# Entry
Amino acid sequence: MSDLRLVIAGAAGRMGRTLVSLAHAAPGMIVAGALERPGSSALGMDAGELAGVGKIGVTISDNPLEAVLHADAIIDFTAPGSTVELAALAAQARIVHVIGTTGLAAADIEKISAAARHAIVVRSGNMSLGVNLLAGLARQVASTLGVEFDIEIVEMHHRMKVDAPSGTALMLGEAAAKGRGIDLASHSDRGRDGVTGARKPGDIGFASLRGGTVVGDHSVIFAGPSERIELVHKAEDRSLFAHGALRAALWGHGKKPGHYTMADVLGLA
# Structure
């Protein structure tokens, strides 16, 4: 079987450079393309040289259409607008689209789901094994404990993160909501300030902290009468997300079109 031909979107970013470095060294895949937004100072640079692994003969481009023509998979940790555009191209090319982009609106997800009728889409708010196990545990605990246990999700990320709550926090909230058999959108509290009144029973609360260079800390807290259960995950290196994304790309190659998650990739679904 030939090597998986991989395109890295957002190749000049921190995650993009990590992906290029790891994919270049990984067996069974090659970096076949690297993309950046129009006007990026990285355009025309060698993706491997920018990632610190030396020249690999792949020039960073702003032409996604040309890139997908020579690809088996795209890994995409970019922005919602770019992700939706890449999803449409992946559908046309019938290839794998691994999406780690956060901050997607409901309309964006609808378009991605439409693209998944022809592309193999693997989308997750977090690509790590540990976080996906945490989501499974959160769902199980939420289904076991009654509404007398309040659920709070606390997350912290580096100062440069632009969306809140994080995609991972929302994924954990969805897992807890499924465990409770409720709709997260109508049972969430994402901001408290001033005299807010007592906590509404059954809501899932979110708190977002930002500062420093924190890669990602997440806690799911079940606070009940006289006792508290806390499920915690701390990411210490962003390479764990890149490893998960590469694993998802390999897993998706040859699969039927569909909208998958990391739980499918890891056999946790």
Summary: The mean pLDDT is 95. The CA atoms of residues 132 and 263 lie 6 Å apart. The radius of gyration is 19 Å. The first strand starts at residue 4 and ends at 9.
